[in-house]
Design goal:
4-stranded antiparallel sheet; binds nickel (II) ion; 2 domains; 4 strands; Alpha-Beta Plaits; 4 helices
Length: 137
């Protein structure tokens, strides 16, 4: 386990009370875990801004019946094979497919892949969730 450091922070009483309510609502066991997560979120946002290597996922929902769409989506993914770790295809219902593409690379490249997939006709939803590799935080 990482070494722990204790430090004092002075904040307005009202702010702390509101934050304690927020912590409780979000099932945090204590302030330390909640504040640690806040700090980590900031550092992760910095990784995105600095275009560092991050992990993420792209979620797609698309029309199963659209001609050539599955082929086109596969071709785009082949063009970005170096940042794709894995993908999972789920047949949601008779008409719709759901795909999760797990990616790792520079945020700009991940965004580029997501927007290319999204631009294909028949894609009903495409969203990129940027995360972190966890290596530096
Ligand atoms: Ni399908």
């Amino acid at each position: 386990m990482a070494e722990l450091v204790r430090f004092g922070v002075s904040l307005e009483k009202e702010l702390v009370e509101k934050y304690d309510k927020h912590i409780q609502k979000n099932n945090y066991p204590n302030r330390s875990k909640a504040i640690g997560d806040l700090i980590r979120e900031e550092l992760i946002r910095e990784e995105w801004a600095d275009n560092k290597i991050v992990a993420g996922s792209i979620t797609l929902v698309f029309d199963h019946h659209k001609r050539e769409l599955t082929n086109n989506l596969t071709n785009i993914q082949h063009d970005f094979h170096e940042i794709i770790i894995s993908s999972q295809h789920i047949h949601l219902d008779h008409d719709n497919c759901f795909e999760i593409v797990v990616v790792k690379g520079k945020p700009n490249k991940l965004r580029q892949l997501c927007s290319k997939l999204k631009a294909e006709k028949g894609v009903k939803h495409a969203s990129l969730c940027l995360a972190t590799t966890g290596a530096e935080i």
